[in-house]
Amino acid sequence: MFQFLKFDWKRHGWALFYCGVSAIGALCYGYDNTYFNGVLAMQQFKDDYATQRNTSGNLELSSSFQAMTASAIYIGDLLGAIIAAPVNDRWGRKATFWLASFCILIGGICQVADTIYVEAIVTVGRILMGLGVGQFTVTSLLYIGEVAPSEIRGPALMMFQFLQSWSQLVASCINQGTENLDNNSLSYKIPMGGLIVLPLIMFALLPLIPESPTWYMFKNRREDAEKSFRKINRSQADYDPTADLAQADNTKRIEEQHSEFSSWKSLVTDPVERRKVLFSAGAMFSQQVCGILFFYVYGVVFVQEIGVQDPFLVQIVINVVQIVAVGASVISGNKARRRVNLSVTNCMMLVAFLVIGGIGTKPLTTATQYVIVVFSFVVVIGFNFGMGPLAYTVAREMAVG
Fold it and tell me: Would the pLDDT of 192 be above 60?
């Protein structure tokens, strides 16, 4: 199980570094998924942006404001993922990284620089950040898969969600540390500013990484592909690019042969291709529709509403549990059967949702509050040990099936 930990990682040091730069996209994705969750629960944010009061007379964000600002990121994610395909094909992976980083930077600046407290500015900023995150989500995994040597490709790809989980924990800790800055907009602007730092780091490191050799080969730029392979493998003094170039040539030839007989229409009319689409797209759809986004988008607000004293601390614990679950999934990913893993973990989530929903229909006591929190942990464990990491793997295996 731990055999990959004994691997000679130093031999692939530069390749790991380049994959690490690409994985900044995972950090952006994870941080973005979490920081706004806590911001919505901060009283100073409510004081600045709310227009209505609750029964206690305190300013309270309207449900429409929460829904619009929280969901705006997913509008951007969708558009960003769509944009990423033509940009990747036309200008390469690095161009997509530049564009994604720029979108996140501008979106973050929009939020931090808003001093007139207008919902539209926050919403536009969130959409722009979503544009960047959507491009990163598509391209980071693509770049890692094309740059990482075959010996480390599996662990490198699986680490995407592991790093995403760590950035979620960092975002939760920042929220916990700033939410008590009373009468100061820095309480929520500091977490917002975190998404300005990450693209700046990406800007600094992008000139150091090579373009994908696979992209060069598809553009018939063989000499550039060879230079890229040499740069990726320069930790190996005896490296010879001949085998990698031959494999890239073969991949290109197969892709060109398939493209002659394939079409978008065949995804619907061809029974084999239709089955692949249903299973692969279904895996990714199930990952998002299973209910986990509620905890990522409204987790702190939800825990606060049911009366738990320190909702920010609960969010930190949830993120720690998530890291443990993802780490266990990465280690055991190829040991447990996919179907068994998904069946067990989804049953865990189903039971937890039924318990949380059932308890929520009755007046809450301290005991029932803790029960809801505990079963929230069960949902997070089930998702991050099963559907979360495996959806990418299952989708890829079914698509190429």
Answer: yes
> Which pairs count as long-range contacts for 140-144, CB under 8 Å and 24+ apart, including other chains?
140/22, 140/23, 140/24, 140/25, 140/26, 141/392, 142/88, 142/93, 142/212, 143/19, 143/22, 143/93, 143/97, 143/212, 144/19, 144/22, 144/23
The Cα–Cα gap between 340 and 216 comes to: 40
Do strands 59-60 and 52-53 pair parallel, antiparallel, or not at all (unpaired)? antiparallel
Beta bridge partners of 53: 59
| pTM for the whole structure | 0.82
- Phi, psi (deg, nearest 5) at residue 252: -65, -45
What is the 8-class DSSP label of residue 240?
A: -
Cα 96 vs. chain centroid, distance in angstroms? 16
Return d(Cα 14, Cα 26) in angstroms, integer.
Answer: 19
pLDDT value of residue 2: 47
Query: Sign of dihedral through CA atoms 327, 330, 331, 333?
Result: positive
CA-nearest of 381, 326, 320, 378 to 168 is 320
Nearest-angstrom CA–CA distance, 38 and 31: 11
192-228 b/e (C-beta count within 10 Å ≥ 16 → b):
bbbbbebbeebeebbeebbbbbbbbbbeeeeebbbbb
Q: For residue 342, what are the β-bridge partners?
A: none
263-280 residue pLDDT tens: 777 778 878 778 777 877
